[in-house]
Amino acid sequence: MSNDIALGVDIGGTGIKAAPVSLKTGAFIEDRYRIPTPQPSTPDAIARTVAKVIAKFNPSTQVPIGVAFPGVVQHGIVKTAANVDDQWIGTDLRAIIRDYAGHDVHVLNDADAAGYGEYKFGAAHGQGGSILLTTLGTGIGTAMIVDGTLVPNLELGHIMIDGHDAEDRAAESARDRYGYDWDQWIDELQKYYSEMERLLWPDLIIVGGGISKSHHMFLPKLRLRAPIVPAELLNGAGIVGAAAAAAAAVKRERDQAKAAVKSARAAQKRAAKAAAKES
Ligand code: BGC
């Protein structure tokens, strides 16, 4: 793999997907590889599967790898696990994937990854203002990008609507759970997005997740103030965003290491000068 490529991995409620991504265009360099999410979705079972999807592309140690997780990930540690096994809570995500895959990785929330991907290469590319990205899948993921800055770990899929956790009724999985037809599901979506508008006043709303392929079935029926558009990267936004975020993190870490070496050298020089003066 060349310098301009990073590998993105997206852990979902039903599938674990990966693809190498061009950091210039955001396009997949090879076909996406998917393995169904193991059940129970314990840390060991998922980490083993993540290692398999990574191994499929045989990346060198130089290739940045980003892993998107369907829960809050704060400083590498999983803090919530609404749609995967509870054993995840408190797990060091970066460390467990590194152990199984034998490769260092960068980790982040899946909706944050999708939001970053859409901002770098998709429907939010270069856009200022407040952009709300939502993913409709097993749960509802949310990310907000304000003038290019992502606010991490927004958990707005869990606001209460009609006394219920919103994602229970408005995620894509609710269609099966409650046997909703399109119109019934659209009613739930309308309530959800109206509430988002009432609270956040976004300039643009982007909808990702597997169902965004069928956006023509539901987006035109929603009555909202802000434009609501499908994710341009569709269900690939998480993979692309994870890859791009990993590349950015690797660069940041390298720059910090270089700056630390530079300041250590400068300190050494100053100390040598002071010692020479004294002698
Ligand atoms: C989780 C979020 C996640 C979303 C989409 C929600 O249940 O709490 O962290 O982004 O599902 O996977």
Protein model, in words:
- The chain is of the alpha/beta class and 279 residues long.
- It folds into two domains: 5-112 and 236-261, ATPase, nucleotide binding domain (Nucleotidyltransferase, domain 5, 2-Layer Sandwich), CATH 3.30.420.40; 125-231, Nucleotidyltransferase, domain 5 (2-Layer Sandwich), CATH 3.30.420.
- The protein is 38% helix and 22% strand.
- It contains seven helices and 14 strands.
- It has helices at 43-55, 93-101, 110-121, 166-170, 173-178, 182-200, 237-278, and strands spanning 5-11, 15-22, 33-36, 65-69, 73-74, 77-78, 106-109, 130-136, 140-146, 149-151, 160-161, 164-165, 204-208, 228-230.
- It has a five-stranded mixed sheet. A five-stranded mixed sheet has the order 10-9-8-13-14.
- Helix 3 (110-121) crosses helix 7.
- The longest helix has 42 residues, at 237-278.
- The radius of gyration is 21 Å and the shape is globular.
- The model has no long low-confidence stretch (mean pLDDT 96).
- It binds beta-D-glucopyranose.
- Beta-D-glucopyranose binds at residues 70-72, 80, 82-83, 109-111, 135, 137, 139, 141, 155, 157, 167.
- Beta-D-glucopyranose is lined by residues 70-72, 80, 82-83, 109-111, 135, 137, 139, 141, 155, 157, 167.
Short description:
The chain is an alpha/beta fold.
What's the structural domain tally? Answer: 2
The pLDDT mean sits at 96
Q: Sum up the overall morphology in one term.
A: globular
Going across the major beta sheet, what is the strand order? 3-2-1-4-7
The CATH homologous superfamily of the largest domain is called ATPase, nucleotide binding domain
CATH topology of the largest domain: Nucleotidyltransferase, domain 5
Rg from Cα: 21 Å
pLDDT below 50 for ≥5 consecutive residues: which ranges? none
How many individual helices?
7
Number of strands: 14
